[in-house]
Amino acid sequence: MSEGSVDLLEVLGLLAAATAAGWVDAVVGGGGVLLIPVLLLAFPTYSPAVALGTNKIAAVMGTATAAYMYQRRTELDRSVLLPAAGLAIPFGALGALSASSVPASYFRPVIMGLLITVALFVAFRPDFGVQQRNIVVTPRRRNAAILVAGVGIG
Fold first, then answer.
1. Strand positions, DSSP E, 3-131
2. What does pTM read for this prediction?
């Protein structure tokens, strides 16, 4: 088999991993914590930026579908949504440029370390993100949340 080709068993394994990551993403979010290491292990000669990009395509499609379904059932606050999306696009491009400029020998361990950190955080803080009822949302807090969300998502 030539370099870069994938046999049927590998394809089935990758499809199973993608399915599991999609399920994790739909149920609790963070399917990339599962899919990115699988991609890095399955394709060790590819740059980490390729694994991140492949995962991002899957994540964008899943999130777009979920967002479409959500907006059909819930009224969205466009004064939050639009500025956050406006920040996410350029910062996403900046992140992609940064990822492609870092040598794989440095980037691969950093990605794995961050993924492990995120997995541990999610495991030990399952209630993170649950809305608390008695928080006063001032305009300053709201703008800070938009900035953090937009930049963080990007």
1. none
2. 0.60
